[in-house]
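Hypothesis: this fold can be encoded by more than one sequence.
Test: take the structure tokens below, design a sequence, compare later.
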């Protein structure tokens, strides 16, 4: 994506505090926009679902939503800034509109912002009572970033699964203590990311250029699509069986939409295989996860 004159002036001229803040908002948005449905949206929905599951007062909901929004924005920033600072070559192919390949931010600038985001994330994590999950997420980000270990599927994919668990546990804990009712939902939401390698299908050209070894590149795209399709076919059936005791009008709606979301991902995985189509498939995959973790809002 070509830079606009306004953005170019932001990068090269001295900025007033207002223009500096506006520039940082634009940069943060361009860093994070494609991953909002993988972190911020499901995190906030998880906290809302925990609020509902724990029967907290309505007056608590604004506090829960505000804390979740700040926490999961920082959760995402830590990941995207470190990931993009170490993945410039593949972003030049796969996502050239991001701040670094488009020339709006330097690698050094990304690391400075990442350091500030980590500090803020730790402070907010402690404030909302989610220090354990905050540290766990930072450990996963550090593991993936260290010597570019993210290039290897056997590091990247397990780290995604652990990261999903950290996100969901933190989301529940923002609302209140982790009760026994929380763990089945955390387990289900975490298990969903066992086929998180769906993400890698969209990035094969850039990953190949960068020398990454993602699962589709190691075993081939066809087995990856088949395994993911089979897992997502079974998921709605398993979810319906596990939550059948909560059957109600809301339960039927939740189950039907979950089945439709998983079915749509399965169809796209097996029929639509171009890189741009896979990018949209991944977004639908993330949106279906958002719906999955929001289940307690419908089940009562």
């Amino acid at each position: 994506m070509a830079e606009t004159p306004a953005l170019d002036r932001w990068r090269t001229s001295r900025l007033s505090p207002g223009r500096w803040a506006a520039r940082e908002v634009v940069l943060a948005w361009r860093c994070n926009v494609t991953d909002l449905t993988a972190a911020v949206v499901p995190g906030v929905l998880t906290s809302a679902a925990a609020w509902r599951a724990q029967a907290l007062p309505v007056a608590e909901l604004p506090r829960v939503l505000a804390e979740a929004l700040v926490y999961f924005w920082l959760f995402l920033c830590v990941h995207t800034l470190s990931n993009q600072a170490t993945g410039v070559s593949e972003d030049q192919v796969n996502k050239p509109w991001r701040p670094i390949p488009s020339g709006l931010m330097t690698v050094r600038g990304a690391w400075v912002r990442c350091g500030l985001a980590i500090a803020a994330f730790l402070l907010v994590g402690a404030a909302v009572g989610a220090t354990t999950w905050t540290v766990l997420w930072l450990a996963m980000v550090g593991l993936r970033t260290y010597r570019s270990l993210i290039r290897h599927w056997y590091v990247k994919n397990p780290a995604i699964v652990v990261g999903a668990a950290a996100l969901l546990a933190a989301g529940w804990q923002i609302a209140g203590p982790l009760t026994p009712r929380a763990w089945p939902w955390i387990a289900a939401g975490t298990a969903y990311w066992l086929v998180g390698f769906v993400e890698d299908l969209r990035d094969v050209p850039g990953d190949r250029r960068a020398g990454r070894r993602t699962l589709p590149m190691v075993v081939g795209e066809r087995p990856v699509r088949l395994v993911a399709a089979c897992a997502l076919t079974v998921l709605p059936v398993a979810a319906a069986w596990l939550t059948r005791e909560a059957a109600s009008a809301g339960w039927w709606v939740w189950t039907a939409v979950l089945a439709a979301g998983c079915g749509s991902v399965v169809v796209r995985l097996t029929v639509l295989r171009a890189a741009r189509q896979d990018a949209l498939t991944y977004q639908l995959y993330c949106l279906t996860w958002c719906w999955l973790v929001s289940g307690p809002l419908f089940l009562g």
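Residues 61-86 form the longest helix (26 residues). The chain has two domains: 19-176, 218-300.
Hypothesis status: open.
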